[in-house]
Amino acid sequence: MAPLAGLGDNAAAQVQAFLDAAPIRAKIGDRPYAAVPVPARLPVPEQTEQSTQAAFGRILLEIAKSGQPLAERIVTTSPDVTVSTNLGAWVNQRGLFRRRDFADVFQQARIPSAQKWSGAPAGQHIELGIAEHNLFLMLAALGLAAPLFGTRLLPIGTVYDPFIARGLDCLNYACYQDARFLLVATPSGLTLGPEGGAHQSINTPLIGMGQPGLTYFEPAYADELALIMGHAFQHMQAPTAARYICASAPAPSRSLSARTPPGRPTHSPAATG
Fold first, then answer.
1. Is the model's pTM score more than 0.85?
2. What is the per-residue pLDDT across 256-268, written as a single tens digit (0 to 9) for each?
3. Strand 74-79 and strand 96-97: pairing?
4. What is the DSSP string of 84-113?
């Protein structure tokens, strides 16, 4: 049965024309999308002493207030740790995303809060529940907006670094699909953050360094962080041509004897003739 067999002739023609014009029908190389300009240098917070995770929030706040094209294309998301990972100021400036207008229930109940939790279709932050799988699924979807729909988005996801392990499968496939996103795992460094040891890990850097398709940084100072973020926004838009090469090689002729120490094979002499 034809895919549109249940529609009348007029309706079928309209639906087929709509499908033919959809960006997803085009080949990836044929889908044009404009690059998002990135300033030569992002603002560096001026505080003499600050953590890199606090500096991250301040840099995003300055971007949000700048009105530059970069600010219009950033979409943030977080699994129920928005404020504690320093996205609060960004959300106050750019708003929560909701398909329909959503009132701030704290404000309606006259509960004092530094956060503005009203939502609207123009909001640029997507609030998730405590589900790191959903975080990486969201980053993957947002990070594929350019090749699929012809519009570049610059997604940023924040999470406490030990909880990355909860969503590794989704993170792996997001990288495998060449989705473009910035994952900010807090806190960085070896010194213990205020959240305590349950929210910090020394194993996460191994994930960042070992995951194919992922570029890993460990910033120590705010000015380094500003440069890294600027590089990330540019790198997320760069074309890639990654290839995995598997070459075959002849196996060496060798034998192991009972007196050979483990890990030190005895090689047979090469054949001559």
1. no
2. 665 655 555 444 4
3. unpaired
4. TTT-HHHHHHH-EE-SS-B--HHHHTT---
Q: Which CATH superfamily is domain 51-235 in?
A: Thiamin diphosphate (ThDP)-binding fold, Pyr/PP domains (3.40.50.970)
Q: What is the pLDDT of residue 94?
A: 93
CB 133 within 8 A of CB 165: no
Eight-class DSSP state of 220:
-
Burial of 21 (0-12, 13-18, 19+ CB in 10 A): exposed
Check: CB of residue 187 under 8 Å from CB of residue 197: no
Asked if residue 202 lies in contact with residue 165, where contact means CB atoms within 8 angstroms, the answer is: no
In the chain, the percentage of residues whose pLDDT exceeds 70 is 81
Verify cis geometry, omega within 30 degrees of 0, for the bond prior to 261: no
Residue 160 sits at the vertex; the CA angle it makes with 156 and 162, to the nearest 5 degrees, is 125
Question: DSSP 3-state helix, strand, coil percentages of the chain (rounded to 5)?
Answer: 40, 10, 50
For residue 56, pLDDT beyond 90 = yes
Q: Where are the domains of the chain?
A: 51-235
Q: Which pLDDT band holds residue 192 (cuts at 50, 70, 90)?
A: low
Alpha carbon distance 243, 141 (integer Å): 22
The 3-state DSSP class for residue 150 equals: coil
Q: How many CB atoms lie within 10 A of CB 52?
A: 20
Question: Residue 259: what pLDDT?
Answer: 62
